[in-house]
Amino acid sequence: MSQQSGADGLRIAGKRFDVTTGKLAKPGGEGTRLSPEAAAVLELMADDPENTVPLDRVAARIGRDAGLDDVESVVSEIRRALGPQGHAALRTVGEKGYALYPDPTATGAPDRTFKMVVHSIAILSFVVVSGVGYCQLQADSGARAQVTPVTTPSH
Asked: What's the predicted TM-score (pTM) here?
């Protein structure tokens, strides 16, 4: 178990994860009981914090010949249970796998908001410089954005 564990369970993003019950809760508060698959994946990730756990290891922990859809579903369940810090705590690492940051606010943890802002500024600068008059900016929580030119409305 990782350095973030103790007698009262594993601490992740301000919540306590009890590996014996699969429950993720705020200290002294009600919690969410994860599915057995999600609890197993969270425990796997906690064993190697801040390092990429490959997709095949995550899928193997889920079992039953899990595919990418199964992995994404389980990761989404964990992120929802972690709350607002879910994406910062359980980070997608390219197409390689996932990394768990038990304390996403600690120094050295990736600041996804900052990356998102920098990326958005870069894209908007491109739009202005390239002369695209009207565009639609779509961004997701993975610090990726996409600019889609839209036809100029007629006057």
From this structure: 0.65
